[in-house]
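Hi R.,

Here are the chain sequences for the assembly we discussed:
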Amino acid sequence: MTMTVRPRERLLFEGADWDFATLQRIHDACEEIALGELGLDVYPNQIEVITSEQMLDAYSSTGMPLFYRHWSFGKHFAHHETFYRRGMRDLAYEIVINSSPCISYLMEENTATMQTLVTAHAAFGHNHFFKNNYLFKLWTDAEGILDYLDFAKGYITRCEERYGETAVERTLDAAHALMSHGVHRYAGKTTIDLRQEEKREQERRAHEEQMFNDLWRTVPVGKAKKAGDIGLEKRRAALGLPQDNILYFLEKSAPRLQPWQREILRIVRHVAQYFHPQRQTKVMNEGTATFVHYQIMNRLHERGQISDGSFLEFLKSHANVVFQPNYDDRRFSGFNPYALGFAMMQDIERIVTKPTEEDRAWFPDIAGRGDAMGVLRDVWANYRDESFISQFLSPNLIRRLRLFHLYDDPEQTEGVLVSAIHNERGYLRIRRQLSREYDIGWTDPAIDIVDVDLAGDRRLLLQHIVMNGCYLQESDTKLVLQHLADLWGYDVLLQEIDGSNTVAREHAATPRKIVQS
Amino acid sequence: MHIVDRRLNPRGKSLENRQRFLRRMKGAVQQAVKRSLQNRNIRDVLDGGEISLPIDGMAEPSFRRGEGGIADHILPGNRAFVEGDIIPRPPGGKGGKPKDAGEGDGEDGFRFVLTREEFLDVFLDDLELPDLAKRRLAETEEETPFRAGYSVSGSPSNIAVGRTTKLAMMRRVALGRPRREEIEALQRQIEECEDDENRLALEAKLKSLTEKSRRIPYIDPLDVRYRRFENEPKPVAKAVMFCLMDVSGSMSEHMKDLAKRFYLLLYLFLSKRYKKVEIVFIRHTDRAEEVDEETFFYGPATGGTLVSSALAAMRAIIAARFDPAEWNIYGAQASDGDNAHSDGNLTGQLLREILPLCQYFAYIEVGEEGGDSSVSRSPLWMLYDGIRSEPLPLSMRKVCRRSEIFPVFHDLFQKRDAQSRVTP
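And here is the predicted structure of the full complex:
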């Protein structure tokens, strides 16, 4: 850090106050560095200045500027507000939306330095990541999302007018409960185009009513015996089973849903899908944004565009953001994605520019290549948390964070085993295990719809493959299954299949009459 | 780049969501209260204290892994461990599993602690006095005036001076009425002026100014405002509640306790429902007396049993003080069912006289703890049961256990359709 006196004219701002001209100057200065020096590629930016109340609003509706109405957002608002008013928690640093133009919210209470930091972090860091990461490219439609949400909001309001708030609320409650199992995990044939979705809604609805009637027409009415002849495989194929996207299956095949209910499931599913990449890239996304803001702020200071005082203010917030408490610290609550991501990005930069012998052995492809930004841009585009950690968590960083691996087997009564620490024998195991903790396929319970009893009572059969003896949480499962049964319209059975391929537990639910209108 | 100022957007974007949440929350609390009534002792409520309710309806469930099973964790900040160490689990902890990272965020912060008043509010909220409808609506309406802004006409006593002068000032400033000091200064100038030509100019100016101030009055009728009042009709419920209790020797302490609890609830309920409600306490042995609340609930008394005495007292009080044409009359009677055999006819006759005057009459028969609350063969029960077949507003229940008081009360005063009568 160079502490020289700069000509005052070059400063972007003085003191804490800002106005719109300042924001424009800040943005332009950040842009110059981001595009010119770091070689980032971003969506056009739109910066919105909001109040703290609006920030709470945005928080509670999963950060989206427009969203349909539902009581749970009110609940989250009340929850966040309590914490905020009691001074127990600060408001979000920033909220940024994966859309084109990319919308970043700045809070009016922020100082000019904080506005610079947020602009660099969100409008350039996150923005670049959204535009370039393969998951976002594959699964989200930045151009269409805002229009789609507008459509969704309007659609749900119209449903409430026509079918009553309660009916819509119950459908939404049920859909929300299944939201985590409403995403396609593997790339399909088509890319997402939300505008198209919206246009085709009418057409599709009419079409689907026919389609789904057809499906159920195949159920033998008179000659029940014939049903036995339908082979299991054939039946499964007809329904597209097994299916892990429960919402998708219900939308397409639930026999008793109204067309509007299908459309609501579809909306919730699209929203879930839109957020799915964010769930898989928390560490990378925040790491990228933090790395970018750190670079930009440093350059701004070097160029004399922000004062020493404001640079110190920045360093203080930056240190807060990337603070990682140790496991025995009272503040510890798991890994801080900002801290881990930022540390790994900086580590990659170090490996590329100043590698040690160890780095050369572990990362032959990038060690000493010299072009840190080039390597990082490539990483940002082509990895998600799980693959990123399994590729780039270096022994150096494992030592620095003093990582260790606990193996907790309830059978083992003496205690918890320390199965690996930050030494030669442990690096690979720690890296593999940590990457697994960020693998959604591994952390989320694997639940598939496997069969429908078409011949009998139309009972829906689901299976949960139990891993490591970890069964589903009892009370929640009951509630979710109830929602599922309500949507399906007939009984639902969930089997938990353990390691020896036997059914270890079963949960069942019978539909209530309420959802069906 | 585009900067948008959203701060001026309509506020309270999430207001609707918050209201929906509150509505839902209220429903959930009500359900929880009802559930908790089943196993709650009345003392818990009436002695105060706090009730906390976990809210099921607020949960947003999802498929999650539960506790147990083999778990792996990577943690930062190792200082002392080496590979192969066994760390004993903290005592009490089952899985030794560290808390879920950054999740959950205190979701169970949504527990509601209800004070006694709130609990009662919720509890009584879905109860209703039967036939709350007034017999003579016209007479029972009263009007209270409330402020409703300003009007341009009204009586002089209601003139709004502040508002009027404010409007006058606004008009004077807007039309440029010359100020008095201005005119006085001009007059002084004219007096002191020696130059004729100048004086003429000044006088002309003075003339125009005085004309202007005449044209633009200090206070114009247009400025005058009056305070406006509107009358709000207020229905006044004229209701009287008769509490009749048998305090004879055959009533055990347990029975008296049950009856008192019932009246206590009734009393709380009534004071929530009516702003002004007359309550008449009549206790009887072989003779009846009207007593105050304190004596009724806590005063000792004993003797024989003549139910007719209480009914006669009620009839007399109605005749003397509460004209049935104007008052809504409710009756509640608690007894162990005993009555002198010779008193049966008189009691039945009195009840038949009283019932048509009443909106509602509830009879609670209290029994010994452990008794069977479904059937009763007591003289009074048999007598009342005979009367019940006639279309009269009478309902009856038998109660033996304290825990039954709440449900029975709840049952008797449940909200019903306007038409349906209480039938046990």
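Chain A touches chain B through 97 residues (CB under 8 Å). The first helix of chain A runs from residue 20 to 37.

Let me know if anything looks off.

Best,
T.
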